[in-house]
Amino acid sequence: MRQPGTSTDNNVAYDLVGVEFYNEFIPCVGGSDFNQENVANMMQGWRSLNISDNLLGAWGYVPASEESRFENGWWELQWEPKRRCRYCLE
C-alpha cells in the first residue's frame, strides 16, 4: 500500500519541514585497524570539515549482532534533493 506523501522514485516530501530528502546509503567494512579510538578520531575529523549546507544529516550503523542480515556497516547521508546536490555520487 502506498503511503501518502511518497512517490515512485522513493523521494518523500515532508510537509512539516517543506523539504524533499535524498538519502544515500554507503556500505562499509571495518578493516584491521577498526576500533573505537579510530572511530572517535575519524568522527572528530569529519565534524571539522566544511561540508555542504545541502548535507542535512549523517549516520553510521553497525550490525546489531552476529546474526544480522548484513555483515558490513552502513553510512547514511541525507541530502536536500539530489538535483540540488553537487556532492552526490552518480
What's the number of helices? 1
What is the helical fraction, as a range of percent?
10-25%
Major beta sheet, strand line-up:
3-5-4
Rounded Rg: 16 Å
Order of helices and strands: EEEHEE
Number of domains: 1
Mean pLDDT: 75
Structural category = alpha+beta
Instruction: Describe the global form.
Output: globular
Terminal CA distance: 29 Å
Main sheet summary: 3 strands, antiparallel
* Share of residues in strands: 25-35%
Number of strands: 5
Low-confidence stretches: 1-9
List its salient traits.
alpha+beta; 28% strand; 90 residues; 13% helix; globular; three-stranded antiparallel sheet; 1 helix; disordered N terminus; two-stranded antiparallel ribbon
Textual characterization of the structure:
- There is one protein chain.
- The protein is an alpha+beta fold and 90 residues long.
- It has one domain.
- It is built from one helix and five strands; from the N terminus they run E-E-E-H-E-E.
- The strands form two sheets. The chain has a three-stranded antiparallel sheet, with no helix packed on it. The protein has a two-stranded antiparallel ribbon with strand order 1-2.
- Strand 1 and strand 2 form a beta hairpin.
- It is globular.
- The N terminus is likely disordered.
